[in-house]
């Protein structure tokens, strides 16, 4: 899995994938009750790889909750290094949320939203393979 993550980050920094959209999926909540999906496009500034695009968050938990079952926002993801580390920001439930951590479908990091000191388990991963075809 570590080799895949390194290859993934190297592919993100490789120029053949430049300009192609990426599909991002994720899960968050203490019971994984929210799923996110987004299609982001690169917005490279200098040596930093940044992706932005529309995002949809769906409540998929079994318990009821306050608010809509689906909401839309925009997500910004910035690759910080070749060790699968990213910074992600998006609005959710009227708050600005940030994540600084690994790109991983298995390992959860912490999502922090403005006005809330609770660190919510968060996982995010890239789905589309088009930018990564150069790395095998």
Write the layout of secondary structure elements.
Elements: H1 2-13, E1 22-28, E2 34-42, E3 49-59, E4 70-79, E5 85-92, E6 95-102, E7 104-113, E8 120-126
Antiparallel strand pairs: 1-2, 1-8, 2-3, 3-4, 4-5, 5-6, 6-7, 7-8
How would you sum up this structure in a few lines?
This protein has 136 residues and is mostly beta strands.
Description:
Mean pLDDT is 79; it is low at 1-17 and 130-136. Strands 1-2-3-4-5-6-7-8 form an eight-stranded antiparallel β-barrel. The chain contains one helix and eight strands, in the order αββββββββ. The two termini are 14 Å apart. The protein has one helix spanning 2-13, and strands spanning 22-28, 34-42, 49-59, 70-79, 85-92, 95-102, 104-113, 120-126. It is mainly β and 136 residues long. It has a single domain, classed as Lipocalin, CATH 2.40.128.120. A hairpin with a 5-residue loop joins strand 4 and strand 5 (85-92).
Notable features of this structure?
1 helix, Lipocalin, 136 residues, 8 strands, 51% strand, mainly beta, eight-stranded antiparallel barrel
CA-based gyration radius: 15 Å
Q: Write the H/E string, N to C.
A: HEEEEEEEE
Which CATH class?
Answer: Mainly Beta
CATH superfamily caption = Quinohemoprotein amine dehydrogenase alpha subunit, domain 2
Question: Unreliable stretches, pLDDT < 50, 5 or more residues?
Answer: 1-17, 130-136
